[in-house]
Automatic annotation (TrEMBL), chain A:
SUPFAM superfamilies: Heme-dependent peroxidases
Pfam families: An_peroxidase (PF03098)
Signal peptide: 1-24
Name the record gives this protein: Salivary peroxidase/catechol oxidase
Family matches, as PROSITE patterns: PEROXIDASE_3 (PS50292)
Keyword Transmembrane in record: no
Domain of life: Eukaryota
InterPro entries the UniProt entry points to: Haem_peroxidase_animal (IPR019791), Haem_peroxidase_sf (IPR010255), Haem_peroxidase_sf_animal (IPR037120)
UniProt entry keywords in alphabetical sequence: Oxidoreductase, Peroxidase, Signal
Entries under PANTHER family matching the protein: GH11385P, OXIDASE/PEROXIDASE
From TrEMBL, chain B:
GO molecular function, one term: alpha,alpha-trehalase activity
Signal peptide positions on this chain: 1-23
Domain of life of the native organism: Eukaryota
Protein name listed in UniProt: Trehalase
């Protein structure tokens, strides 16, 4: 039989080589084919696309008349706040969508029928300017020339996207050869009951406290804000029914890609979580594929606190003494964030009735995401006001504007110091974090898709279902410091809050004292392991109607929406000298039991999503696995370069005076705690001693 | 591109690597049936005995509107089989309602359904047509190897879509929603697991091109038997379709059969039944417009559509009174009779436009071009069959009927200004100047003055240009309004492409013939692209994209799919020598062919050598 094997193998090789020959149409052919299209035809293709965009309006009107839009207080509302588009990004996205539609018309009319595949077609089109004399060209040029208030397209780390048609189409979940497993199914299969998770805790050494996850989210809010597409009228898009089932196709908006779970069996009504495809961004006035819009910018500038635009910033200022608005609670240093007004309410909190309950306002709709975020936004708001007051003391004649700008500059500098000197080493390990400073790129680039919608999202794996009450009234007396080391595990504790109850609906009675308790508990509670298992409070693993979101399913879906390449491509580009060819090649990076699970989920290693591969990796140094480390590190090289390019010379000297500031000091000065650990991202221990706030 | 062949080569070599040598198995026993022999169906006095369960009533209402809902598709429930007699089922259901204080939970209802109903579709068996041919002759008419391969795969799908009713159905029809018929059928596919009336026209033509005359004749005989029993053909093979028909194409089916078989006797024998259907249809659908008698789509039943009950109740909520709700449901069902459920074609807004949504449906107030063109054609064909039989009196009678309809079409529906036929809005007494492929349907059935072909052609070509109908990469959309209803833009449907392409071809002018060929080619290539990508034929496609299935409407896009396959098989037969999958007119096609030759050669060589080795090793 040996001979047969060889012959068969030979045939396999011939077949495979023919396949590659057959597939490729040389780029010269593509150019020749498409260069033949006359100018008038290009115009006509763009017109057809614009007609079809225009006709979409009827569809949206009919959805609105059927009340298919996001209802206040719904799950979709909470999710919308996570991805809330500004007016300017809506406008940007609409033009980008017209360009994409035009490109797709060319693809469908001229490329596909002539056997030019999506990637070749797109490459050609990316070099092809929109036709002279088309209204779209004018519209695009006006946009590019105007003040875009800093939105950018997310960057693609490996310069290529992963779409079924090369432009925008997501891979289907069933019914074709290139189907990928549904996002929600992946999340459900990775889920393990919360108590079965703790058994492994001894194995991995994990001293991180929840501050690490909290700051990760804060950094995410600063650098990355993908936002949802909206209807032409600006109304938000809903892709699920009110009872979290799938909608009839007639109510399906073209920008919908809902997260569905199809139960087996006779009673087969699918559960549904909203997912609206991310807004698009105009990169240039050429044809091309989809590029997603980032409503945040690639430098650490506390835009989440101060607002992404000048107009937003102005709304948040008290406009006297350089201060930010606050909700007064006795002494100013214990102030809370300002409350959202009734009109702002729905863009900050997911409540059914406007004006019900606490709802904070800040520069980003994500402030009320959870108590962790509310706390850290509050700390930086307080720090700003503390700095402004100090400056005012020293410079009685400075006006509001001058005080504000100076306080902001110092606040940002302090924030950068803590993020770069303390948080980043905790995430990446000290070695890689210091390496970042040595790397030099010529030009600072914007935020990558891979960082914004995958790597930085690692912290959700670390979040627990609840924050235990580990506050001890924080009295530091003599040698009692050691008391913090073993707190928690052995002793029955009460909870400060359950995370799932607080998502975009602040329920807690927020007072300065409550924030102190939260802060202290964060510093004393260990994170969950960074692994492929999320806590039940952030995913929906049951087959019943969901009452909260599934973050992992959402991240998988969004990764696909943004056209991220599969996990192995990043692993290869970061570490491997040769391409991955089997599951076995992943063994070095992913624990065996997790890898076995992935094999049951994905039909091929080549399909594993970046977020799934990323959270599955064993952390080596720091807190995240090698691939996410690689992506985060790459981003931070650009972040540093951004800082260097946008140096604020006006406040350089002032900023220098605050060089000594660190995390401990930041927390001490802006809370009622009397002691804080030396390293604010690690549990207090013999090697991470408590520092008395009286001493700082 | 010769991908299919190369993939084939890869598969062959792979399978020989792992030494799979099993013969292909289709899962059906080929040897056991002679079902194509026409069975005798014993007539039942009670026409639709299971209607009290499946068409109306408290049980239907309660299950279909349960909250949370039991089924994602409302059709699931009404296709389930009863485990007990309708009377017992209803009595026990009433008892349940009493016990639960008229407010049973979804869980209570699930329990009831589990106990009293069997899963949908259990009355039907998969059936391999006995006259199926491995290599129907139409394959020889296709030059491009990939298209030829595809044609063979489409021919294979007939075996997947074959269905036969179990014997117990005709014995106990009251346990089923299915309407018993004597012969096995080819179904559309997907959620449509029973026969449908107008779908069957294109399915039957596809069967005839695939040389499956017996199956085709069996399906036509089913319809004849249904007319004999009920007087008309319901929308599809379920009792809950009892209040409506679909575009009347039975006579067209008989004509197709006779064209292929020259079996004039078949048509002559069917004449009584065909006349009966024609008379029944015209009697129950006629209106008078501008002193002409023309027909509209209608429905005669009460209540929401059982198979879309929940959806209809929901849109009905827009209306305050029961009376208004009934009117609304009646318009929904009339639209379903047209086959175009649903479309802005049937919307009349307050200001007399096609704006609005389902609540604006006014199907029965719109005189449709296609229905009247079809009835003209029916009358012409019946006259033609009578002339074969030598019944001169009948020929005259039906020629006269045809002539009357033609006058109506010319005077009410032809629109000189638009240069095309238009549906007529009786409410606002004006033509509806919106594109629908059916605006060109008189060309297909030659319901126009042939002597005016030149003039009509110029006018139609201008209409196509003005509406930019040739600018869509995936075919001509059903309308130009994007409403997310399935018979609106951007959806494209095989039967409508067929009407357009065959109609333009009938005009016989060079421009019209060119456009006809262009659209046929585009359709074949786009369907082929979708099939190569997804391995599916879809019920509908997307005009804005090349090779992509459609969307919108009440249910997800279905695969299978009867009429799509039928149209492609017909056009591969007619134009297979002139269509290639490669670049238009470029070197691509030639290169493809070379590659395929290499591929085929390689497969053959491997097969030969491997075959010898295997042969030897088995005998060692």
């Amino acid at each position: 039989m040996g001979g047969i094997k060889y012959i068969c193998l030979l045939a396999l090789i011939i077949g495979a080589s023919l396949l590659t020959i057959g597939e490729a149409k040389s780029s010269r052919d593509v150019d020749a084919e498409l260069n033949r299209i006359p100018a008038s035809k290009w115009l006509q293709l763009v017109d057809s696309a614009l007609d079809s965009v225009k006709r979409q309006k009827r569809l949206e009107d009919s959805l609105l008349s059927s009340d298919i839009t996001v209802r206040n207080g719904s799950l979709s509302h909470a999710q919308l706040l996570d991805t809330l588009p500004s007016l300017a990004s809506k406008e940007d996205s609409i033009i980008a969508l017209k360009i994409l539609k035009s490109s797709l018309f060319v693809y469908n009319s001229e490329c596909l029928p002539n056997e030019i595949d999506g990637d070749d077609c797109r490459s050609y089109l990316e070099q092809k300017p929109l036709p002279e004399g088309s209204s779209l060209r004018t519209e695009c040029e006006n946009l590019i020339r105007g003040n875009r208030e800093g939105h950018n397209a997310f960057r693609r780390l490996l310069d290529s996207s992963h779409y079924r048609n090369g432009f925008y189409e997501m891979f289907p979940n069933s019914g074709s050869r290139d189907a990928v497993p549904a996002a929600w199914n992946i999340s459900k299969k990775l889920y393990e009951a919360d108590d079965s998770q703790s058994s492994e805790e001894e194995i991995v050494e994990n001293n991180s406290n929840l501050g690490l996850a909290q700051w990760a989210q804060f950094v995410e809010h600063d650098l990355s804000k993908p936002v949802s597409q909206s209807m032409g009228s600006g109304a938000p898009i809903e892709c699920c029914s009110r009872d979290q089932n799938n909608l009839q196709p007639r109510h399906h908006h073209p920008a919908c890609a809902p997260i569905l779970y199809q139960p087996d069996g006779k009673y087969d009504v699918p559960s549904c979580l909203n997912y609206v495809r991310s807004a698009l961004s105009v990169a240039d006035c050429n044809f091309g594929g989809a590029e997603q819009l980032n409503q945040a910018t690639g430098s650490l500038d506390l835009s989440q606190l101060y607002g992404f635009t000048l107009a937003a910033e102005k709304k948040l200022r008290a406009l006297q003494g350089g201060l930010l608005k606050t909700t007064p609670r006795g002494e100013y240093d214990n102030a809370l964030l300002p409350m959202a007004t009734d009109t702002e309410g729905p863009s900050f909190c997911a409540r059914e009735r406007i004006g019900d309950g606490t709802c904070f306002a800040a520069g980003d709709s994500r402030v009320n995401s959870n108590p962790f975020s509310i706390l850290i936004y509050t700390i930086f708001m307080r720090n700003h006001n503390k700095l402004a007051a100090e400056l005012h003391q020293r410079n009685r004649r400075w006006n509001d504007e001058k005080l504000f700008q100076a306080a902001k500059a110092i606040n940002v500098a302090i924030y950068r110091q803590v993020v770069l000197e303390e948080w980043l080493p905790a995430v990446l390990g000290g070695h890689l974090a210091s390496e970042i400073r040595r790397k030099q790129y010529k030009r600072a680039l914007e935020v990558s898709n891979e960082f914004g919608v995958a790597a930085i999202r690692f912290y959700f794996s670390m979040l627990p279902n609840e924050l235990q009450n580990l506050a001890r009234n924080n009295v530091v007396e003599g040698n009692d410091k050691i008391q913090y080391v073993f707190v928690g595990k052995e002793q029955p504790t009460t909870n400060l809050f359950e995370l799932k109850e607080e998502i975009y609906k602040p329920k807690l009675q927020y007072t300065s004292a409550k924030l102190n308790d939260i802060l202290e508990s964060i510093l004393n509670q260990q994170t969950m392991d960074m692994d492929s298992t999320y806590a039940g409070g952030v995913v929906w693993h049951k087959s019943t109607k969901p009452t909260h979101a599934d973050i992992l399913a959402f991240d998988i879906q969004r990764g696909r929406d943004h056209g991220l390449l599969p996990y192995h491509r990043y692993l290869e580009s970061c570490f491997l000298s040769k391409p991955v060819t089997s599951w076995k090649d992943l063994e070095r990076f992913i624990p065996k039991d997790v890898l076995e699970k992935l094999k049951t989920i994905y039909s091929s290693w080549a399909d594993v999503d970046l977020i799934v591969g990323g959270i599955s990796e064993k952390p080596v140094r720091g807190s995240v696995g090698p691939t996410f480390s690689c992506i985060i590190a790459e981003q931070f090289v650009h972040v540093l370069k951004q800082h260097e390019q946008k140096l604020d010379h006006n406040h350089a000297q002032l900023v220098e005076e605050y060089r000594h500031f660190n995390g401990t000091k930041l927390l001490c000065l802006n809370s009622g705690l009397s002691a804080v650990p030396q390293n604010i991202f690690q549990l207090p221990s013999a090697s991470n001693q408590m520092v008395s706030c009286g001493d700082v | 591109m010769s991908k299919l062949y190369i993939v084939g080569l890869l598969l062959v070599s792979w399978s020989c690597l792992v030494a799979i040598s099993q013969a292909k198995s289709y899962g059906f026993d080929l040897s056991t049936d002679n079902d194509n022999a026409i069975a005798n169906y014993e007539d039942n006095d009670d026409k639709f005995p299971s209607c009290e369960i499946y068409c109306t009533g408290n049980l239907l209402h309660t299950i279909q509107t349960a909250n949370p809902k039991l089924f994602s598709d409302s059709k699931t429930f009404v296709d389930m089989k009863l485990n007990n007699s309708p009377d017992k089922t209803l009595a026990d259901f009433e008892a349940l309602m009493q016990a639960k204080n008229q407010t049973p939970t979804s869980e209570d209802l699930k329990k009831f359904v589990d106990e009293y109903f069997s899963p949908k579709g259990t009355e039907l068996e998969a059936w391999t047509p006995t006259d199926w041919k491995e290599n129907p002759s139409f394959l020889d008419l296709i030059s491009d190897p990939d298209l030829k391969q595809w044609g063979a795969e489409l021919n294979n799908i007939w075996k997947i879509l074959g269905r036969k009713m179990k014997d117990e159905v005709s014995k106990n029809p009251e346990y089923y929603s299915i309407i018993p018929v004597p012969n096995p059928v080819i179904i559309p596919g997907g959620r449509f697991i029973e026969f449908y009336y107008w779908d069957s026209y294109w399915i039957i033509r596809g069967l005839l091109y695939s040389q499956m005359h017996t199956t085709a004749r069996g399906m036509i005989q089913n319809f004849l038997s249904i007319v004999n029993r009920f007087g008309f053909i319901p929308n599809g093979g379920r009792v809950y379709y009892h209040g409506r028909s679909q575009p009347p194409l039975l006579t067209g089916m008989v004509k197709s059969y006779v064209d292929f078989t020259n079996d004039d006797k078949f048509a002559i024998d069917a004449l009584d039944t065909l006349e009966h259907e024609f008379e029944f249809f015209t009697n129950n659908h006629s209106v008078t417009v501008k002193n002409h008698t023309l027909c509209v789509y209608r429905d005669s039943s009460a209540g929401p559509r059982p198979e879309s009950y929940r959806e209809d109740v929901e849109t009905g909520e827009e209306f305050a009174t029961e009376e208004e709700k009934e009117l609304h449901w009646s318009e929904l069902k009339a639209a379903a009779e047209s086959g175009m459920d649903f479309s802005s074609r049937w919307f009349i807004s307050k200001d007399g436009t096609n704006d609005g949504n389902l609540t604006n449906l006014a199907t029965s107030s719109i005189v449709p071009v296609d229905l009247n063109a079809l009835l003209y054609w029916n009358a012409k064909l019946i006259a033609e069959f009578h002339s074969k039989a030598g019944n001169i009196k009948k020929v005259t009678e039906y020629e006269t009927k045809a002539e009357k309809i033609l006058q109506g079409i010319q005077e009410v529906l032809w629109n000189e200004e638009a240069g095309v036929w238009l549906d007529y809005d009786m409410k606002n007494e004006k033509p509806r100047d919106y594109f629908v492929p059916t605006n060109l349907s008189p060309l297909w059935v030659k319901a126009y003055n042939i002597s005016e072909s030149e003039k009509i052609s110029a006018s139609i070509m201008a209409y196509i240009e003005k509406n930019k109908l040739d600018t869509f990469p995936g075919g001509v959309p059903n309308t130009l309004s994007y409403t997310n209803e399935q018979w609106d833009a951007p959806n494209v449907w095989a039967p409508m492409q067929y009407i357009l392409v065959e109609g333009l071809n009938n005009l016989n002018t060079p421009e019209a013939k060119n456009m006809s060929m262009k659209w046929a080619t585009k359709w074949v290539k786009s369907n082929f692209k979708a099939f190569s990508k997804d391995r599916h034929m879809y019920e509908k496609y997307n005009a804005d994209q090349f090779g992509v299935g459609g969307g919108g409407g009440e249910y997800e896009v279905q695969t299978g799919f009867g009429w799509s396959n039928g149209v492609i098989i017909e056009w591969l037969s007619k134009h297979g020598r002139d269509i290639s999958t490669g670049a238009a007119g470029g070197g691509g096609a030639a290169a493809t062919r070379v590659m395929s030759v290499v591929g085929v050669a390689a497969v053959t060589i491997v097969a030969l050598i491997a075959g010898r080795f295997l042969w030897q090793s088995w005998f060692k």
